[in-house]
Structures
1.
Amino acid sequence: MKPMDLSLHALVILGSVGFLLFIIYLIKKGKMEVKYSIIWLAFSLCMIVFACFPYTVLVLNDIAGVIDPVNFIFFTQIIFILLILLSVSAVISGFSKKIKQLAQANAILEKRVRELEEKLNK
């Protein structure tokens, strides 16, 4: 390895470990729930493995039949991004249903309050 490659390699390892530590920090501070961070944790661990053991990228690249190892890394990142988008969409859909139910329950309660107010005013 050239010195430049070694410094870039170290930077990628430090960046991946820093990203993992940042996710753990967000979980500890309660800014991110564990169930939503599992994909992020898997992504950061995958990047740490790729950074620490670059040979795994070459082996997986040959297994997948991709021409260039960089394309394989982009491919895995795109898969993780799609998984993250899918999980966010599922969470948003769940929240949308809950908001709709809350709005309906609120409307029913408002109607009951108005009816009770009318009875009291009579």
2.
Amino acid sequence: MGLFDSVISAVTAQVQQQGGFDQMLNGLLVNNPELGGLGGLAEKFNQAGMGGIIASWIGKGENLPISAEQISSVLGSGTLSNLARQLGIDPEQASGQLAQMLPGLIDQLTPHGTLP
């Protein structure tokens, strides 16, 4: 198991109680062909004009916050709806949970301040 998989496993174990949110994170960052992994997610942020936000999570230093609305804007309604449907929650709940979890998760996935 690689470093990326180890970190995903450790982080998702901490959020098991959130009813499958670990599956959404794994799907979003690892198995989602719509995004292309962490690099693809960073590119989506850049395309949405929010490259500075994800750069703060990747780089060393303080993580900038993100809102559920910004998450929706970055991912698009199709991707967000697909993830929410897989979890059995509505897209608003999914975007809210992502807004809370992604900064810390991406920060942990990039301990050296660069994409793997």
3.
Amino acid sequence: MTEKVSTIDVRQRIGDLLNRVALRHDEFIIERKGKALAALVPVERLEQMRQFARSQALEFLEQQKKGGLTDEQATDLALEAQRWARRRQRKSRRKAK
């Protein structure tokens, strides 16, 4: 299970947290003011996530080559995803204020 820790806890216990990550493969979500800010995970886990993301991207590209989306549709979809992410980011900033 992933444990949540504050940035203050991280500053005070960084050595202990790093040992737990390296030796016991514990994972931590680092929070500031109750909001998730970063994650502390073993390097192996990070590599697994990167490898999974790459394989998913390659699979998507293969599907697209087989007659999935046209270039125009893919561009429109990417732009819409970008707009959605920006709107979501603006909303989270407003809530933080």
